[in-house]
């Protein structure tokens, strides 16, 4: 079974997806980490992003490993965040990432999180969720993770949101059959509990 969790940055996808995977004993696919790893490779080595994407050997598990190197922390750098949003607009990069993601999802049970899981990567996923939250709360969550001022984060977030929503290739939008969940002011356990219930219903 595949549970697809999409939505903008700071909507609570990672926390909910990790919590859900742990509760259900499913594997967890962080597709954003893959775009980040390719962005890091391009920043460090230069070259054509599509070629870097096709050549990159990315392992996801507890740690993110790029071509044999642990890059778990490096891919969270703000420069990488910015570059990832740019390269994620590249159609050839997306094609390479989607192929890798589909290969992973073809076996076993997964909770997969990203922007296009329900629309492009796994349109047949048994359960699709689209998480949202108010722009302020999303910025406050990201700022707490980064140790930054939430107002600054909110300004950058608006730029990245526009970039993600307006790009020609797989713009961020909910799948027609996705269930939309607003996580504003909701404790994560509450959202995970609700989603576990939705998974049980979807499996019946
Ligand atoms: O979720 P994140 O912040 O780690 O994602 C990093 C970037 O990659 C972000 O700009 C959105 C993009 N992304 C995407 O376009 N498609 C995905 N499936 C996952 C992430």
């Amino acid at each position: 079974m595949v549970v697809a969790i999409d939505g903008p940055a700071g909507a609570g996808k990672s926390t909910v997806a990790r919590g859900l995977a742990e509760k259900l004993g499913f594997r967890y696919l962080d597709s954003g980490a893959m775009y980040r790893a390719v962005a890091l490779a391009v920043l460090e080595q230069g070259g054509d992003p599509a070629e870097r994407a096709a050549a990159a050997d990315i392992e996801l598990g507890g740690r993110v490993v790029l071509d044999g190197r642990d890059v778990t922390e490096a891919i969270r750098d703000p420069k990488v965040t910015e570059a990832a949003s740019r390269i994620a607009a590249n159609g050839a990069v997306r094609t390479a990432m989607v192929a890798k993601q589909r290969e992973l999802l073809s076996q076993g049970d997964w909770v997969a999180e990203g922007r296009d899981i329900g629309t492009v990567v796994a349109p047949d996923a048994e359960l699709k969720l689209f998480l949202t939250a108010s722009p302020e709360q999303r910025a406050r969550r990201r700022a707490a993770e980064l140790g930054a001022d939430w107002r600054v984060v909110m300004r950058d977030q608006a730029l990245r949101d526009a970039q993600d929503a307006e790009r020609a290739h797989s713009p961020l939008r909910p799948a027609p059959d996705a269930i939309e969940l607003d996580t504003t002011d909701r404790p994560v356990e509450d959202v995970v509990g609700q989603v576990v219930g939705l998974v049980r219903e979807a499996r019946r």
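The longest helix spans residues 150-166. The chain has nine helices and eight strands.
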